[in-house]
Amino acid sequence: MVRKSRLGSKASEGHLLKLMSDLIECNKAVFNELNIIKQSQRDMHRKLQEISVKVESINKDELSDIGNQVKKLQLMAEGVEESARLIMLTSVMNELDEVVGNK
């Protein structure tokens, strides 16, 4: 019986060593995967920064275009206001001419 217990403990010891070896290999694989994930995160972060710069550039260009369009619309609105004033003034003058002409 003594021999069986010794063999059993040696077998258990061998099994534990195999489990520890497997665990170490597993840890190495996990560490490698984490490094790959970290590199991927760095790559994505860099790409996001590049995209952000492009978006800012596009936004500046679009804002500039919008600003130019707003200026044009303001000038057009001023022209329309001026035209409306002239039309009203002409209308008032025509009415005055009619009133004066009728007297």
Can you offer a commentary on this structure?
- With 103 residues, the chain is mainly α.
- Helices cover 98% and strands 0% of the residues.
What attributes does this structure have?
103 residues; mainly alpha; 0% strand; rod-shaped
Structure summarized in a few sentences:
This protein is mainly alpha-helical and 103 residues long. It contains one helix and no strands.
For the biggest sheet, the summary is: none
H and E order:
H
Strand content: under 5%
Specify Rg, calculated over alpha carbons.
43 Å
The share of residues in helices is over 70%
Number of strands: 0
Mean pLDDT: 84
Helix count? 1
The end-to-end distance, rounded to whole angstroms, is: 144 Å
User: What's the overall geometry?
Assistant: rod-shaped
Low-confidence stretches: none
Structural class: mainly alpha
